[in-house]
Write a structure and sequence with these properties.
Layout: E1 3-10, H1 13-26, E2 31-34, H2 38-49, E3 59-61, E4 72-75, E5 91-94, E6 108-114, H3 117-132, E7 137-142
Parallel strand pairs: 1-6, 1-7, 2-4, 2-5, 3-4, 5-6
Helix pairs in contact: 1-2
């Protein structure tokens, strides 16, 4: 079973995703960020550099040789292929417009939704797809940022 948390109302989807990744990093927890759009992943990476003036959030692509030792990883490939035997399953943070393939291999999926109409429409479609699987627990949360 996967728990999918939709966080609605982000002023800036990428910035909120960076904040979530930073919080996971500070807690010593893994997060895998999925997106097939290279420009969006680059904006996420750049955003992590500016999350705080004195903070550094190490993050790499899952193909990087050091990926196993980094808490925040990114991928544009099927996220489940990044899972490693014997390691804790990370949260999956979806920045793509579609549901991540193989998301059911993750206990927790985070969906951040901005107030932009196109983003909300894509989120509605993902909500429908996630909800169609009765094994999923889909929840909505309101953000104020």
């Amino acid at each position: 079973m996967s728990t999918i948390d939709f966080a609605f109302g982000a002023k800036n989807r990428i910035l909120k995703a960076c904040e979530v990744a930073y919080q996971r990093f500070l807690a010593g927890q893994q997060v895998l960020v999925y997106c097939t759009d290279a420009k969006r992943l680059q904006a996420f990476s750049k955003g992590l550099w500016g999350i705080e003036k004195t903070a550094f959030v190490p993050h790499v692509d899952v193909a990087d040789p050091s990926a196993a030792s980094v808490l925040v990883r990114t991928t544009n490939k099927e996220p489940a292929s990044a899972l490693q035997d014997g390691q804790e399953t990370p949260w999956l943070l979806n920045l793509d417009v579609a549901c991540p393939p193989g998301y059911e291999h993750f206990a927790r999926v985070i969906e951040i939704v901005s107030g932009h109409e196109q983003d909300r429409q894509f989120a509605r479609e993902r909500w429908k797809l996630y909800s169609a699987n009765s094994a999923n627990k889909v929840r909505a949360h309101s953000l104020s940022n």
